[in-house]
Design goal:
By secondary structure, the protein is of the alpha/beta class. The protein folds into two domains: 64 residues, Hypothetical PUA domain-like, domain 1 (Ribosomal Protein L25, Chain P), CATH 2.40.240.20; 157 residues, Alpha/beta knot. Helix content is 30%, strand content 30%. The strands form two sheets. Strands 9-8-7-12-10-13-11 form a seven-stranded parallel beta sheet, with helices on both faces. Helix 2 runs parallel beside helix 3 and helix 2 runs parallel beside helix 6. The mean pLDDT is 93.
Length: 233
């Protein structure tokens, strides 16, 4: 059964133009077909198409439920986008599939990419949500200056991954169930020493992500995977 995003109200759902076009023109759904609709905020519904229009598809719902979140932790990844945008889109897709609650793009002094198309990133995240059959869309935040992000960065456990030869704990030592985690992942040129010092002053803990030096997007996925595995039920 195909899944689509839509506005769910009472026993009806409306797909936006993009989802309607995909539903009717690409997947060839017609009146009477049964589809699944999610709103991205935890509601999942099943119903039959009543109006199969490419600009606005209407669905009559027969089942509706609020899906409880299954992860017993909150993960926020703050990551510097890579010069090659396809690599950061790949990160978003896989991070959503593995499990992430919030992603913030940060611009540090060594960042090579200074522009992010929010709409494109959100579409990647939405597609990954549908592919992995989840009901919640992670919060995607716009590109933010590192120094500005640090002013509002909050979490129960705050971590920073960098390449400096400082003493670091294995990330597994900081993963705790029922806690919020925030992980800072630097650009391809790494954080500057000043940025690292600023993070440490704000109670971020330096962590090691294995023995190998990782690409930016790989480091982000490593964090997602570590929390998922350690907290697996």
């Amino acid at each position: 059964m195909n899944t689509f995003f839509g506005i769910i109200q009472n026993n009806a759902a409306i797909l936006n133009e993009e989802e309607s076009l995909h539903c009717v023109k690409v997947l060839r759904h017609k009146v009477g077909d049964t589809i699944c609709v999610i709103d991205g905020n935890g509601t999942r519904a099943i119903g039959k198409i009543e109006a199969a229009h490419a600009k606005q598809c209407a669905v009559s719902l027969s089942q509706k439920e609020v899906v409880a979140k299954t992860r017993n932790y909150y993960l926020h990844i703050a990551i510097a986008p890579t010069k090659n945008i396809e690599r950061i889109e790949w990160f978003v897709e896989k991070a959503v599939e593995i499990g992430v609650d919030e992603i913030t793009f940060i611009r540090s002094k060594n960042s090579e990419r200074t522009v992010i198309k929010d709409d494109r990133i959100r579409k990647v995240a939405e597609s990954a949500v549908k592919q992995s059959q989840q009901a919640y869309i992670p919060k995607i935040n716009s590109l933010t200056e590192f120094k500005d992000f640090m002013k509002t960065a909050t979490a129960d456990i705050k971590l920073i991954a960098h390449c400096e030869e400082d003493k670091k704990e294995n990330i597994k030592n900081y993963i705790v169930s029922d806690k919020s985690h925030l992980a800072l992942i630097g650009p391809e040129g790494d954080f500057t020493k000043e940025e690292i010092e600023q993070a440490l002053s704000a109670n971020f803990k330096p962590v090691a992500l294995g023995d190998n030096r990782l690409r930016t997007e790989t480091a982000g996925l490593y964090v997602c995977g570590a929390l998922a595995v350690i907290n697996a039920k």
